[in-house]
Amino acid sequence: MILLLKQMKRFNRAVDILKYDYESRRQRNPRFSKRSYAKFLGISSGRLADLMNERIPLSEKMALLVYKKLDVTSEDQEHFLNLVRNEQVHKMDRRRKINFDKQVIFLKDTKKSLEEALKILESGDTDLCDFTSVTVPVSAKKLDQIRVLVRQFQFNLAALAHEENVEDTYCLSIQLVPTSRIEK
Question: What would the pLDDT profile of 91-108 be if each residue is shown by its tens digit?
């Protein structure tokens, strides 16, 4: 049985797709067990139980192994992987537990870092800096996906840059602002 994209789009979490797929297979064969499903997916039954009971999240690495076993189109597979990536970003956000007061401080810090960047840009002393900008047409439907990509980029950049011996600290500011709302 192939899950159609319109069926997959109704799911907000990758684990729900796995649960749906398992239940669909179980309806066709009532003797189909979670252990059989785990074997079919190529993961341990303990890992599947942890996933289904939401004790652990589905990692992107595991998702790459699992989605190949699901009867879905390549477009659906991309949706499945995007759900996994989105869940990882939301998990990172939950760990940070940014409340409103911290967001206000963050905005003040962002404004300060942008003012400092502007001073450096105006001074011409940009040897150790990189200033880039891009303006793109954006559909409101894709805004959440774009935010996920930005957060993933920030997470990957931080992981790449992390070293014990550093010479300096750099600030990366990314603004996603609709140009129609910028006062001219």
Answer: 655 555 445 555 566 667
